[in-house]
Design goal:
82% helix, mainly alpha, 4 helices, 0% strand
């Protein structure tokens, strides 16, 4: 419940203050958002499976964002940032859709 309250507060603050993303960090923001969504949907799936652990969620959330941003940074340094960004988005997108499918099966029993 605390996480949901924190999420709502964060969204409201973001909409109210409308922070600007520095140009140097702009390529990493979409990757970080997708990595964070992967962790959130994985946590929701784990909750529905009855195996949710808050420590695992926090570590997964942070490590997903750091590793995804690190891969994109490495791609930028190697000159193939666009390709690695696409790869990260595809992999995390597949994981998100897999988790959403499992959540849907839990909700609709189908």
């Amino acid at each position: 419940m605390i996480a949901v309250i924190g999420l709502v507060i964060g969204i409201v603050l973001g909409l109210f203050f409308q922070p600007d993303v520095p140009v140097g960090l702009a390529p990493y923001l979409p990757i970080a958002v997708v990595a964070a969504l992967d962790a959130v949907f994985g946590a929701l799936r784990a909750f529905m499976d009855g195996i949710f652990d808050d420590k695992v969620f926090v570590v997964s959330f942070i490590s997903n964002v750091v590793i995804a941003a690190g891969i994109v940074y490495l791609g930028d340094r190697l000159g193939v940032g666009g390709q690695l960004s696409t790869g990260v988005i595809v992999v995390l997108g597949i994981r998100i859709f897999t988790n959403v499918a499992a959540i849907r099966r839990h909700i609709f029993h189908a």
